[in-house]
What does this fold into?
Amino acid sequence: MAFLQVALEKQRAEMARKDGALIWQKDRIAELEKALEDAGRRQKRPSAPFSKGDPKTEPKRPGRKAGEAHGRHGQRAVPPGPPDKDLVAPLPECCPDCGGEVCHDRDEEQWQVEIPDPKVVTTRFRVAIGHCAGCARRLQGRHPDQVSDALGAAGVQIGPNAKAFGAWLHYGLGLSFGRVGQVLGHLGLAVSRAAICRSSTRSACTDLVPVHADLVVAANKAPTLTMDESGWRVGGEGEWLWVAANVELTLAWIGEGRGFEQATEVVDADYPGVLVRDGYVVYNHYTKATHQSCTAHVLRRCHQMEADLPADDAKIPAAAKTIINHALAARELATPAERAAAAAQCRARLDELCARPTSCDANRRLLKHL
It folds into this structure.
């Protein structure tokens, strides 16, 4: 009988613990549902640009802080070199208030930097056509400024500067081909979106091919590369955008899949340098590389886990984030001995953290990755 009583008490305690967990989960679900509903409502609600929510009850005073720590004063420097135009702003002949005589005291300088009115330059090439007297082969002259040998219906070309400017607007600033055409039209050059698209495609398939090949060779010789991949659309079909970059170059290519075969289209399988990557398992196939896990990915993951997990479970991602930040700060230590000692200390702390038992699935996955 005593045994049954003890078992019953254990069952009651277990039920009470589970009831508490269910209550916490119910409250947490309600909190997350409200946050999701508020986020969706903010997306649909008309609001001012860069809105950050409701105004604060006690906002900080706008403008620079008073005192010594008010920040750096910024002003535009005087343009270097002689001015293109030198204009004079004379005094009025008489005082506009009382009509009295005006006396000249001194001259001050004001500078103005302006973009001149755009002007489209039209060039006509008189192309000489002839033939060889010996073999009767057709011959055609070409000026160094020409971009094509096309004549007749295709004899009107867009110059290289306009093509480069249009490509920069589209690929550099993200404007659509239609808006690129509008910008060029505002500058006085009427061009259709189809012409800009064809020009970019032609450059990518001809002029940029040797440039890309040189960058691939340089990337495989580079001491370090950061690789990543993301979903992409080509003609409405799902593909993958791959990127390999360092401080000197950036390579991007489209692959049909997310496997090692697509990764090695640019970065060779025997790449021997330092490979900075996330936790995606495909990168493990680079067996000759020295692998550096991307700390930005891990820190963002830890930050998100801290916000989502209960207080007890959030201690593990918080500890991991602290260790990684200490390791990053150790790079600025003065001597190699200090950096080595800090690295050994961080490594020991990380090993101790990874050995910590946990019942949270998210924490188990994080520790396995670390």
The chain has a mean pLDDT of 87. Residues 134 and 303 are 79 Å apart (CA to CA). The chain is about 40% helix and 10% strand. The first strand starts at residue 129 and ends at 131.
